[in-house]
């Protein structure tokens, strides 16, 4: 697992947080009118230290790149003048209480747009806190943009007018994975394993449900949760997986919990498949190596090897901006999230949270050939999903590798937004 590059992090922070350097160098292009008014600040609340620090830093790079694109065309256009977008960092240390403390700090600094994603537990806490704050202080209401927290409850039972999710939730991702698993007729046994918190529990619950409905002939030979971010040695889990006779592992694990799991399974001699939510990045392909060719399956909103010129140009642009292979972690949905925000601010003609929310409900955006829109009823982003399988770079359909590992992902299933869409149980208070 690559650790954060702290000099690079400080350099990026200086670029984004300095008042004079709030816009990227691109924004100084004569082709775009310069943003002259005070910046629109976005508070990123994320784990930037601790076991999942690398995921937080990866998110930061994505948000940096997205805001640079907006700023390159002059920032967001408002009646008082163009304003750049600026990311301000708040370290939650991967803990819900720290995330709530970071929210209070952001509000104290008059930041009214916050974004977070790498923990559904933290996201749930933020939704509750923002709901209460916005009821108490209608003069400084806060908007919450969620790029990765995918527990379905967040846009169902806990849906909030102030919360917008830009990632496909766990049930949507599971359905996409099952569209491939369903067709694997040789598969007869599967081991379910996940992180013991709301998201991991939701993944295994939905896995059981969808397996029963779509592949009742597949036997679940293991079903367990493990402590999140606290397991340093997954060898005992890998031994149980191998001993179970499972032909495949299905997991929603992410970050170090995924990398260490697949590495331990490989070292234990497990030669089955992995059906994953996040097996395509953050060290997992390098950890599993050749053993993953044709066997590691991942689901995402977008993959670098989507076979279109627009997609290839988009990915090449990111690699030029962040050439270090360790920084190779680009997510289309985070780019679309910032584009949606910029669109909503301009249509609202204001940065008032309620006014922006009213426009964000109607967001329709397109970037690099990827089209998506926000569903107003539950604030769940509707976008394409893809399922891909790991292969060696250079194989058909695998032009690009991941993180310099020599392994990439070939898209084997593509779902349109309509195919990926699922019903909701939101009864939103407006």
Automatic annotation (TrEMBL):
Residues 1-27 form the signal peptide. Keywords: Signal. Residues 39-394 form the Leucine-binding protein domain. Pfam families: Peripla_BP_6 (PF13458). Belongs to the leucine-binding protein family. PANTHER family: LEUCINE-SPECIFIC-BINDING PROTEIN, PERIPLASMIC BINDING PROTEIN OF ABC TRANSPORTER FOR NATURAL AMINO ACIDS. This is Transporter signal peptide protein.
